[in-house]
From TrEMBL:
One Pfam family, short name: Ribosomal_L7Ae
UniProt-listed InterPro entries: Ribosomal_eL30-like_sf, Ribosomal_eL8/eL30/eS12/Gad45
Bilayer-crossing regions: none
Name of the protein in question: Ribosomal L7Ae/L30e/S12e/Gadd45 family protein
SUPFAM superfamilies for the chain: L30e-like (SSF55315)
Ribosomal protein eL8/eL30/eS12/Gadd45 domain ranges (all copies): 6-93
Protein species of origin: [Clostridium] ammoniilyticum
Top-level taxon: Bacteria
């Protein structure tokens, strides 16, 4: 897996193309999120909740090798378990880099 996607997550955050937390769930339901990145150490309940939403609304997602701390650091925020990318360009490139 190419770690360059972490840099793109940071750029997407600066460009206001990232959502997280409860906003992420609402964004998936509103069909605004193009891709979801979930930390590998997210709780089983959280993973299920997010992946079920993604399946229902046909949103691509990846459970990446990085932990919560690494993903949070990439976007400059604390305790980010999952990130939704709302910008189509960033989503496409991140998907390529992760390997999808």
């Amino acid at each position: 897996m190419n770690k360059k996607y972490l840099n793109l997550l940071g750029l997407a955050n600066v460009a206001k193309g990232i959502v997280s937390g409860e906003t992420l769930i609402k964004s998936i339901a509103a069909n605004e999120t193009k891709l979801v990145v979930i930390a590998n150490d997210a709780s089983a309940n959280t993973k299920k909740k997010i992946t079920d939403k993604c399946h229902f609304y046909h949103v691509d997602y990846f459970i990446v090798d990085e932990n919560i701390e690494t993903i949070s650091k990439a976007v400059g925020k604390n305790n980010r378990v999952a990130l939704g990318i709302t910008n189509q360009g960033f989503a496409k490139k991140i998907k390529e880099l992760i390997g999808g």
